[in-house]
Amino acid sequence: MKARTRAATILLTPFFLLFTAVMVVPIGYAVWLSLFTEKQSGLGFGGTETVFSGLDNYTAALGDRAFREGFGVLLGYCLLYIPLLLAGALGLALLLDSALARARRFFQLALFLPHAVPGIIAALIWVYLYTPQLSPVVQAMEAGGIGFDFFSPGGALPSVVNIALWEWLGYNMVIFYAALQAIDRSVLEAATVDGAGAWRIAFSVKIPLVKASLAMVGLFTIIGSLQLFTEPLILNKGTGSAVTSTWTPNMYAYTAAFDRNDYGLAAAASVLLALTAALLSFAVTRLADRKGKRA
């Protein structure tokens, strides 16, 4: 028993050291930083000094309309993006897993390739495709009598959702496809013998058996959605779009830190966002556990 404990300690120590260095310490520093603010002494000629402000930065962030509206944008993004991602990725995985699918490896690789493109590069590509003076897509739409401004207040959110779907649809499809491949084929054969068609097998047999993968992807997607930053940041730069510098909470924190040099406010906004992600993760996990127990 002692040998096992010693071996486990040796194997787990590097993980906990790395976890502490890259997770615990930065989070602790962010919390500490959020409790302080910088103030100018005298008439502004004496430099700045760091003073303890308690929860003032949290109050300032929550009292800022731009920060609150950022959570509204995230809510709209999640309501539009998450169902489309889960349904699209699961649908593609079911198609690849069906008996009618051909060239599965090719389509699996082709659908996964967009995920290999860095997010900032993908955003730049789509900004080009959204720009009316440059994009052949927009020109083709206008020629067909379809007018849509991807940078307008009503078009900005769908534009960002489209970029995220292009990036992550194939990645999550691979996860679902792997889960479908792990299903015991005898179960599917039994359903076929009982007279179930392809649609009935898909909805009554396959999907219930990959619920764990659905819950995991849903949880990671929620956490990733709350961290929305790269795509709207690129749309905000030089496009004249409705995406402002405080469009999402992450962008609000970035602007507070690097444009306004208010690191305490930025840290407080980041901590509030992290707490929101933790609470949502806990809620989704509990909900999945309850459904699993009922099943």
Q: Could you estimate the helical fraction of the residues in percent?
A: over 70%
Q: What structural class should be given to the helix and strand makeup? A: mainly alpha
Give the termini separation.
37 Å
Radius of gyration: 24 Å
Please give the count of helices.
13
The low-pLDDT segments are none
Q: Strand order, biggest sheet?
A: 1-2
SSE succession: HEEHHHHHHHHHHHH
Described by strand count, sense and barrel closure, the largest sheet is: 2 strands, antiparallel
Strand content: under 5%
Number of strands: 2
Instruction: Give the overall shape, derived from the CA principal axes.
Output: globular
The overall pLDDT, averaged over residues, is 86
Structural write-up:
Helix 3 (65-97) runs parallel beside helix 7 (156-181), helix 8 runs antiparallel to helix 9 (198-209) and helix 12 runs antiparallel to helix 13 (263-294). This protein is mainly alpha-helical. A hairpin with a 7-residue loop joins strand 1 and strand 2. It has 13 helices and two strands.
How is the topology of this model organized?
Blueprint: H1 2-33, E1 36-40, E2 48-52, H2 56-63, H3 65-97, H4 104-116, H5 119-130, H6 136-143, H7 156-181, H8 185-193, H9 198-209, H10 211-226, H11 230-236, H12 249-258, H13 263-294
Antiparallel strand pairs: 1-2
What labels would you give this structure?
two-stranded antiparallel sheet, mainly alpha, 295 residues, 2 strands
Summary, kept brief:
By secondary structure, this protein is mainly α. It has helices spanning 2-33, 56-63, 65-97, 104-116, 119-130, 136-143, 156-181, 185-193, 198-209, 211-226, 230-236, 249-258, 263-294, and strands spanning 36-40, 48-52.
